Amino acid sequence: xAPNDSSDDAxxxxxxxxxxxxxxxxxxxxxxxxxxxARCPHCREPIRTLRVLRLLRTQVTFTSPLPxxxxxxxxxxxxxxxxxxxxxxx
Length: 90
Hints:
Layout: E1 2-3, E2 11-12, E3 30-39, E4 46-56, E5 69-74, E6 81-82
Antiparallel strand pairs: 1-2, 3-4, 4-5, 5-6
């Protein structure tokens, strides 16, 4: 990761080479339909759905204050992570 030129202490993740075929276990997860179509910021294709995958912390060598689980949203076409948030009333 390289620091972004702006002063907001954000990092840009460099582009990586495609990994090839997506493993079958990664193909599952919840599908959310967008109210209106959007364009993926990575592949620039119009999308109407987002896939939601669960994250589980599997290893840590210290007592971590970070959550043990979370979720990540990915484009259904290019499989890249999209910066977005899920929220709702529980």
